[in-house]
Amino acid sequence: MISMQSLVEGLPEALKLKGVNSIYLPELAQKTDQELHSFKGGHALFTFPNTPIKCAGAPQKIMYISDDIFRQNGVRDKTKITYCTSLGRVFGVKKYADTLMKIVESKDIELNVRRNLIKVDAITRTATFEILDEDAVPTGETVSFKYDFLHAAPPCSPVKPLRDCHELTDSKGWLDVNPDTLLSKKFDNIFGMGDCLNTSNAKTGAAISSQMRAMSKNLPALL
């Protein structure tokens, strides 16, 4: 899968300017670090998209790291931190969400659920979000926030060769496999692994290790 910052209006251009960052783009890692350490206070806004995403915990990890940097630099009391997520709670897995919610509250972070970033205006420093319903479908309503520092976790999608290969994929471009065997639902000699699958697991290294265990049994059995 690949990051698709172009799916958010104005984001590709904004990422080139001061105040808008993303650790999902390696070339922006140093810029993000420099801006966090030079931040003097204001509104720090962090987002989570309405698509599958590489490492669903990373948007929160950078937020907690930022909180720590602000505290070390003595500007946390001058800073409002907001987390806008497309999910209905702070994290997709409830048992982790319950613990993370305690962390969010202890760090005085404002949580806004069912908010999906759709536009960034780098000139006015305004981020616009569509409001989602319980099924993650846009309601037609939007809400905007002014920011001084924005960390955008961009939407992600399957790579273009997969999106264009309808014989192998589902309607959204993900490799269509049986979630238990990892065998293609359309071809009996094709297996899939990794971020490209339409399985419900997170797109993480931990998920790959689980898939490896299934693959180590199922592939030899087919051969």
From TrEMBL:
EC supergroup of this enzyme: oxidoreductase
Catalytic activity, as annotated: ubiquinone-10 + hydrogen sulfide + glutathione + H(+) = S-sulfanylglutathione + ubiquinol-10; ubiquinone-10 + hydrogen sulfide + sulfite + 2 H(+) = ubiquinol-10 + thiosulfate; a quinone + hydrogen sulfide + glutathione + H(+) = S-sulfanylglutathione + a quinol
Subcellular location: Mitochondrion
GO cellular component, one term: mitochondrion
Keywords, ordered alphabetically: FAD, Flavoprotein, Mitochondrion, Oxidoreductase, Quinone, Transit peptide
Record-level GO BP terms: sulfide oxidation, using sulfide:quinone oxidoreductase
GO molecular function: FAD binding; glutathione-dependent sulfide quinone oxidoreductase activity; quinone binding; sulfide:quinone oxidoreductase activity
Entry cofactors: FAD
The protein's Enzyme Commission number: 1.8.5.8
Biological role stated in the UniProt entry: Catalyzes the oxidation of hydrogen sulfide with the help of a quinone, such as ubiquinone-10, giving rise to thiosulfate and ultimately to sulfane (molecular sulfur) atoms. Requires an additional electron acceptor; can use sulfite, sulfide or cyanide (in vitro). It is believed the in vivo electron acceptor is glutathione.
Family of the protein in this entry: Belongs to the SQRD family.
PANTHER family: SULFIDE:QUINONE OXIDOREDUCTASE, SULFIDE:QUINONE OXIDOREDUCTASE, MITOCHONDRIAL
The protein's name in its UniProt record: Sulfide:quinone oxidoreductase, mitochondrial
Organism this protein belongs to: Parascaris univalens (Nematode worm)
